[in-house]
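Long-time lurker, first post. I've been practising inverse folding by hand and with some scripts of my own, and I keep getting stuck on stretches where the structure tokens seem ambiguous. Below is the full token string for one chain I'm working on. Before anyone asks, I'm not after the true native sequence, just a reasonable design that respects the backbone. If someone could post their per-position residues I'd love to compare against what I wrote down in my notebook.
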């Protein structure tokens, strides 16, 4: 066999392997799209069935959520606003905790920590992402709520504040990891230029590196918020099962009392007595559709903003 023949055979094998790998990747991409389409189809189909039994206006504007318990007028109530209020409240408070903390941790790891310190702290921080969410819920119930009561806050056994704290802790690794990658990707030329103009390490990090990486940082914020919105077990255990409308004038009271999010309501309906075909059963799909539209709109809006903030360096 000549050298040219051997080289030709090897090239043929490489092309065949390349076609196989390309086909595998294409199949994975198509499978992902099909799964997404299937989820959307299921939500739309069963949510449509729900809306044939419960008017859409009553669902979107109702202020009571009692899908398995008869009210005083002998009816079930399917108002989503209390659940939406609880979801927004816990998401906002957890974001107040996680976003600045995660960004500060990312800034330290990227700009101030030594290689040895970074190699220890970053994996240790990311361990938080591997803790099961139900463990966070029990941690809030057993430790955070008693601590809040000990410092003098009149919290209920199940309350939104404890749930917000553990959700905030849970999404810190997502913010810090992605933000740290974005900060590390900023070209060193920008740092050196800032130093050449007399900037300190702190000024360079805050006024040069962070604005240059704002697109990636913003992406980490959006992903973290999406995770907080969709969190289930931690808020189910820690926040309780009391749908409550958010009172703008008494937000502190809302935090100290039991609350219920959309995801927790779906879990509670699934565990309630009653078979399929009932309005309560189909309400899970209506809630899932609301949650999907909520997070999808958030991601679309974030994508538009991120594109406008994106910086390209060559």
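-- Answer (accepted) --
I ran through it position by position. Result:
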């Amino acid at each position: 066999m000549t050298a040219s023949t051997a080289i030709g055979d090897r090239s043929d094998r490489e092309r065949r392997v390349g076609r196989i790998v390309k086909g595998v990747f294409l199949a994975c991409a198509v499978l992902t799209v099909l799964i997404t389409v299937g989820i959307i189809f299921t939500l739309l189909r069963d949510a449509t069935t729900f809306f044939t039994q419960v008017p859409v206006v009553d669902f979107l504007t109702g202020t009571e959520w009692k899908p398995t318990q008869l009210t005083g007028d002998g009816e079930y109530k399917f108002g989503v606003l209390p659940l939406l209020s609880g979801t927004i409240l816990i998401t906002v408070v957890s974001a107040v905790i996680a976003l600045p903390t995660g960004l500060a941790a990312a800034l330290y790891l990227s700009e101030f920590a030594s290689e040895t310190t970074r190699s220890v702290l970053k994996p240790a921080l990311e361990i938080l992402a591997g803790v099961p969410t139900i463990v966070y819920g029990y941690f809030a119930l057993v430790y955070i709520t008693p601590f809040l009561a000990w410092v003098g806050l009149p919290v209920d056994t199940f309350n939104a504040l404890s749930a917000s704290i553990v959700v905030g802790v849970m999404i810190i690794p997502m913010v810090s990891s992605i933000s740290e990658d974005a900060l590390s990707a900023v070209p060193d030329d920008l740092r050196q230029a800032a130093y050449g103009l007399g900037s300190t390490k702190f000024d360079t990090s805050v006024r040069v590196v962070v604005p240059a990486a704002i697109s990636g940082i913003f992406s980490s914020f959006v992903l973290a918020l999406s995770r907080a919105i969709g969190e289930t077990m931690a808020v189910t255990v820690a926040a309780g099962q009391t749908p409550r409308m958010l009172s703008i004038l008494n937000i502190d009271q809302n935090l100290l009392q039991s609350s219920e999010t959309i995801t927790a309501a779906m879990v509670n309906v699934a565990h309630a007595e009653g078979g399929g075909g009932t309005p309560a059963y189909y309400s899970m799909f209506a809630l899932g559709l609301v949650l999907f539209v909520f997070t999808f709109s958030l991601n679309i809006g974030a994508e538009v903003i991120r594109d406008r903030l994106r910086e390209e360096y060559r």
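A couple of notes from the structure itself: The chain has a mean pLDDT of 85. Strands lie at 65-66, 77-78. Happy to go over any region you disagree with.
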